[in-house]
Structures are given as C-alpha cells and as structure tokens.
Amino acid sequence: MNRCRGFAVASLSIACGLCWSALAGAQEISPTQDAERHFDARLDLNRAFTAARSAATLQPRAIQGLVANVEELTVESNETTGAVSSLSSQRGYLTGATRGRPMDVATEFIRNNAAALGLEAADLQGYVVTDSVYSRVTGATHIYLQQRHAGIPVYNAQLQVNVNRDGRVISVNNSFLPGLAQSVRQLHPRIQLGEAVAAAAKFSGIAVPTQLQVVQSDTGPQRATRMSHEGLSLAPINGRLMLLPIRRGEARLVWNFQIQTLDEQHAWDFTVDAENAEVWTRFDQTVADQYRVYAHPVESPNHTSPLPPSDGRTLVVNPANSTASPFGWHDTNGSAGAEFTTTEGNNVHAYTDTDNNNSPDSGSSPSGGASLNFDFAINLSGAPSTYRPSAVTNLFYWNNIIHDVQYQYGFDEAAGNFQLNNYGRGGAGNDSVRAEAQDGGGTNNANFFTPADGSRPRMQMYIWTSPNPDRDGDLDAGIVVHEYGHGISNRLVGGPSNVNCLTNRQQPGEGLSDWWALAYTARASDTGATPRGMGTYSLGQATTGTGIRTQRYSTDPGVNTWTYASINGMAVPHGVGSVWAQAAWEVYWKLVDEWGFSANLYNATGSAGNQRMMLYVNEGLKNTACNPTFTQVRDGIIQAAIDNHGGEDVCRIWEAFAAFGLGSNAVSGGSGSTAPTNGFNVPASCQGGGGDVVFEDDFETNLGWQTNPNGTDTAVSGAWERGDPEATSSSGTKQLGTTTSGVNALVTGRLAGSSAGVNDIDGGVTSIRSPAITLPAAGTLTLTFSQYLAHGSNATSADFLRVSVVGTTTSVVFQRLASASDVDGAWSTATASLNAFAGQTVRLLIEAADAGTASLVEAGIDDVRITRQ
Questions:
Q1: How far apart are CA 145 and CA 133, in angstroms?
Q2: pLDDT reading at 287 higher than 70
Q3: What are the subcellular locations of this protein (predicted)?
C-alpha cells in the first residue's frame, strides 16, 4: 500500500528556540530573569505567518511521484518556509539499493528530488559538506550539507541525507531556505563584531568591558574576526557573518559568535543583526539541570548493600574496553604504558574545582601510583570534603564507562565523541571531557557544556545541601549519565559540527538524558512496571522516591499517566523532556519483554532488547532532523529499526509509540509547539500482524462477553451493548463515528434522552469481560483492537478507557486517559504484546470510567483480535 501521511505542519525547524514576550531589540534580560535557556525572536514574529508551500507547481507533482514509488511515505513541511522538512517511509526506504559512494547516492537523490523538497536549483549552489558520519556498527552513513550564498553560510540550514550500507536512502531532513538568493538583501555588515558583542552582552545583563579589541580579522565573505574577551568571556570571542533564515522570502545578515560567561553557567551562541544590532537568537550550549535529583547498577550509595554509612563499593579491575580505549584510560599518546597515574587520560580529566576557577585544584586529581590503584577511603557520614579522592575516582570511572559503552553503539570519533587523541580513526580530537567534581560554582545542580567537535566539553558536578550530611552528586551515577547524555545528543543530532540542534521547545534532550540514565542503571531483576525515580540519592530520598520528576518512570499506567499530549503546559525543557523519556522507556520495555535483557552493554550487535534499543536510539539520533519534534525523533529511531536486525522490531516499536499517543497519526504542531495531538494508530502494514488467529470478535455476533463481571462496577449505567456506533447525544453534537468494520461495535450503555448523551457512562466505572481464551505456549502473541474515547470539557485523568489481561496475574496492557479539554473521539488501532501470558487461559477486561456525572465520557471497542506469529 502506498500512502502519504500528508504535509504535517511544523514550526520553523532551522534554529528554533524558546519564545520571550517581545522581540529581542525591545528588551533586556538579566540572568535572574532568564528562566528559559533559549531565546528566538523569530517565533513571535512568525506566529501568524504561513508560507505558501511552493511558488512553483512542481512540488506537489514531485511529491506525488514519490508517493507512487515509496511505501507509506511520510512528508512533513515547514510552515514558515514552505519547504518539505523531512521525507521518510514508515516501513522502508526512499530508494532501492544502489552501488556507489554514499556521498554520490546522497547528492544524486537531492538533485533528482529538489522540487519535491520545495527547493530551486539555485538553492543547492555553493553548499559545503560539514560532516559525513559513518556508523561502524550499522554501516550507515549520515551526510550533512550546509547551505551557503556568496560564500556566507546559512545558520543551521542543513540538508541531511541518511544512506544505509546497501546504498538505500533511509531518510532526508531539510532546513535549506527556498529561494535563498532572492531572500537576501544585504551581504556587507553596517556594524562590526564589537558592536554586536556589546549588544549581546547588554541584552543578557552582562557588563561590557570598556574597550573590546579586535585581535584578528580577515576580509573574506564571512569577515572572520577575533575579539579580546577579558572581563566578558572565558574564551576568545570568534565571530563570523552568517545568513539567518527568518521565513520564506527573508534572510538577515547576522554576526554569529559565542560568549562563555565568567560564572561558567552559560556558553551562549548569538546571532545579532549586522545591520541594526538586534539580537535575533541566543542559544545556550551549556545544559544545566535543576535537580531535585537523579541517580546505575550501581546507581548510588543507596542502591548498594550494605547501605550507607557502610561502604558498598567494589574494586573493579581493568575495566577499560579494548575497542573504545585501546591503550587504557590513562593514555593520551597512543602507545603502550600510561602517561598519567592520576585521574586523567584520553577520554576525561577528572578533578575538583572547589574554588570555581575552571581549573583543577592543586593535587585534586588523585594518584593511583605506578600500579594505578585508585582505592581510597570514604565516610558517607562525613562531609563530602572528607572523601574528595573517592568522589573524583567515581566521576572518572563513570565518564570512561559511558565513553566506552557509547563507542560500541556509534558514538565514536567520526560521530564526534570526546577524546584527546583519536588514534587516526577520524573526527577532530582534542576534546576530552573536563569533569569538575564538587564544583564551587553552585549547589544542588549539575551541567554539561557541549561545543562542536574539536573543542573540549565541561561537566560540572555540585554538592547537594538538602540532606544531612550534604550529598555529593559525583556519587550519583544517574546524574553523571544524564549530564554526559547531553553531550551525546548534542553531537549526534545535526552532526558533530553543529551543536545547536536541540534548542527548540518540543525537543527531547532532557528526556534522552533521563532515558540513558535509566538504561545504564537497569538491572536484570527489573520489570517495566518497576517504578524508577530520578535522582533520589542526591535528594536524600529512599530508592522508591519520586526524585526530580513529577512522576516516576514505569510502564504501569497507575504509576505514570503521561501520553504525548501531556507536554501541553509542562515546563521547557525538563517537563517536556521527561515525557519523551517515558515514551522511550515504553519502547525499551516492549523490546526487552520480547527479546530479554543482557547485562553486557558493550555488545552493540547483541539480540537482547536493551541492546537493540540502545542501538536504535544512537543510530536514530543520527537520522533525526535539527531541532526535532517528538515525531521526528520517533521516525529517526524507527528508521534505524528498519535498517537493523532485519527490520523485525519495526512494528513492535510502532505499537509501543502508538500506545503512548505517538502513533502514525500523531500531530506534533511543530518544533516550537508544546500542544501536540495524540495519535494511536500504527501504519497499515503493522495492522493485523498476520499469523494465526487465536481469538477474534468483530461484535457482529455475540460471543459471550460479560457485562459488570465482578458485580462491583459503580457506574449509573453499568451496561455495554453491541449496537449502532453512530448514536448521537440528545443535542446531536456527539457521535461515536464509524467503526473499522461492520455496523456494530461494543459501546457504553445507552441513556436515551439523557442530557449527558446516549452513550454516556455517567459517574463511575463500567466494565466487560471476554470469554476464556487459551493462548498458545509458543510464538509471538499480539493483541490488536480498535478503540474510541470521547470526553467532555470537565473530564479529568480519572476518566479512562483501559484494557487488562486477566490470567495468573492481571496486567494493564492499554490505557487511554481523558484530559480537561473537550475531545471528540475517533476510532484508532492499538496493539499490545501478550507474550507474558503464553500458555495461560486468560480473559480480556475492558473498563471505562467517568469520575463524575457532570462530564460526558463515551467509550467503544471493536475488532478484537489475538494472533500468533
């Protein structure tokens, strides 16, 4: 089946950031006012602007040509530029296999499909290749082109083509500005870099030194200039001219430069108008996390036995991985023998920075001597200052563990990983992590600064003051993994040369970091339903505590109630990000439940579910568009699943995402939106699943479902019925719509003449239960059904439609919650794995709830099927 999902509208995806109440030129923001990390004046400017999709008539015809040749084509477009922002298939590739270099495959596809992307031939002239990232583990190559005009780069304007090992085009992400040449009105600056820097400092509430001096400059098209930085920035200020896309038909000449603030809390990337000194964008390359907190086997001292104040640590011997760190953790020159006997090496230099001067305290990298024996005492009853060598050793160990594991999954030299010496294996090098333990720059916090490949990142770990005694974040592996995760995601999304691709409102950066922390600290004894709080140790909580997030992560809908649409109203970026982490956690457990769990995270080609998910996430981020929506990150992960493990996990991943509201019909609203629409559908190719039918009921006949099976339902109307699914309320304003097949569905009981509606549940819970179903003992068992939920304006999350499986245990396999907004339902398909019930005789329990009589809640179930493959 060839199907185009349509031109799903997205907000400006070129360099989206957070939105302030006025344009940059109209306000100053002090550090205390800067509650949100990013600023982008274009969001307000373009709020009511929608570009024509294409000035030419070629684009629709060209898209239709792709629709005819690509199975289940997905097309998303950018409403402010009119160009297509992404092309992919929900179940396959954009092209067949071909011979040739990946670069040639990529450029040929772009050349042949420029019209489909909404681009003119002139828009492709003068581009440069910023990165070509080859993934050893998958054989895919990710190619990043940057748009240029008259030798001047276009800010964050990337054309990314992902090519698999067989020369198939996996997907394309596009943020080139169409009609670029006609959109530029100025190529020569009216103000110089010094004036732009002064404007940026004033905008940010920073005092400007009396005299900013030009240290070096050239006369090329980009006017590359270096300014003095004393009293303003930790590093020299290097600026160059770029073209900033505003919207279709307009690109502004801007100065682009970075200021690393003296308090080490920000590394700001600015674009300032080269004509009038207006600040257009300010994106923070330092990710600071305000934890209440977050903490692996072993996650923290509280996750050990014996518990603190006992010392639960173990002595680990020769932990360096020979592939990722071939000369050990203390090497820097690529020869036998350690160059350092302290906590310094090729991947990380760990030390304390208690005086907050961004340099190691004297003697703060503890020595393990010639034998490299880093075995230091610890007393958790005392202040963190009494066990600094142990804290630094723990921080050094975890940074290296993350480096070595991530290397296996493609975060290597070519992808922009963190190493001083790249041993001739690609990438820029000279960028090991500066890991600062017990940093004096703050408390109850941590952060990670990620510059582009070739410049050193910085991790700052702080003391936590709320418990007594104080606790040290350096002992909280969840925090360490989370912070390092920002470095991974910033270098994988958009390529290692562009670290500004996670600055939009609907981006998953915080959630990706949470997910890595969960995945690194998962144990074989865990289940998906096991509640996981983040940062419980540093907050002084028990391991069962909530931690920093408002809900614990769990596949149990009674513990975590989020869906995609839950980001509406959540704080950016942490609240929004935590919802992505839950979505990814649901997918993780879908795979672990199917393929099992392995404690060996170094085996990136392993068949266990957690190994597969780690691979799909890392490779998926390389497929993902700059400034992505959740749906685009989802698509990147699915594209990785299509291309690895024979594609056998694609429908499982779709099913898990769809159950969360990130199905094929989910609507993101754009990269700047936090008001997406849930979608619970899977692609047509994943519906039904094929295989042997174990049980099926389309409700055209009565197969013996019980109403109110336990006699405990409390709804005023405790009945469900097989009947006309299009019955309307007394006002005629609501209807169930059309079932997926036939004329009957199982719908909530009728209340004819009721003001609430003929199908209103009306106050309480009503349930039905299937006849007994004997499941086979072997094979992949999948439950598929159509479901419907509509609710009135005063519904709450206590209103729901729930599907459980009752065997020797009872498990909730699907739950859809209502919200405070009025939603008219629509039928969609949901799936769930029943492998945990193999060999058992089970019943399906369907429940619908209405918290009170004031709201209208209607529910429906149709086409229930259990299959075995």
A1: 12
A2: no
A3: Secreted
